Amino acid sequence: MKERLIICSLVLLSLAGCGANNDFGDLQAFMDEVRARPKGNIEPLPKFQPYEAFTYSASAMRSPFQPPVKIDLTIRQKGTKVIKPDETRVKQFLEGFNIETFEMVGTLANQQGVFALVRGAGGVHRVRVGDYLGRNDGKIIAINQGQVDVIEIVPDGEGGWLERPRSLTLKERQ
């Protein structure tokens, strides 16, 4: 019992020693300075500008990362009135899409002839020589292992028509 009394008295003496030395003068001075500051000098919150939506209007223009196309009007081909698209011909399904959307993915050959496989317009399509492809009356004139050759009939801008050769090269798997 005596031991407990000694331990309790030591604890009380140590606690009393902590409170005896009040050296908080610097903290008290800081608090007095803060309390002495004038009240009501709080700056108002800044006004935020509302967001204005931006509409990109140059999407139909040439990409700035591609070189400009130089057209020399003196060398430009002149079209003729002899060459023109057949207006009475029934359009095929693949003529409703741009030729740039198609890519050649393979060839097939059987007793009926050689066929090319082109991907575009939502799937893979089998075409042969004489079929039409693209919006410019592109007629397939040759099919070989590496490419499909097409002749398009395009306007020359002056009332005539030009034949323009195009090729779809084989797109190999990567």
TrEMBL record:
Coiled coil: none annotated. The keyword Transit peptide does not apply. Pfam families: PilP (PF04351). Keywords: Lipoprotein, Signal. PROSITE patterns: PROKAR_LIPOPROTEIN (PS51257). It comes from the Bacteria. The keyword Chloroplast does not apply. Residues 1-20 form the signal peptide. This is Type 4a pilus biogenesis lipoprotein PilP. It comes from Pseudomonas schmalbachii.
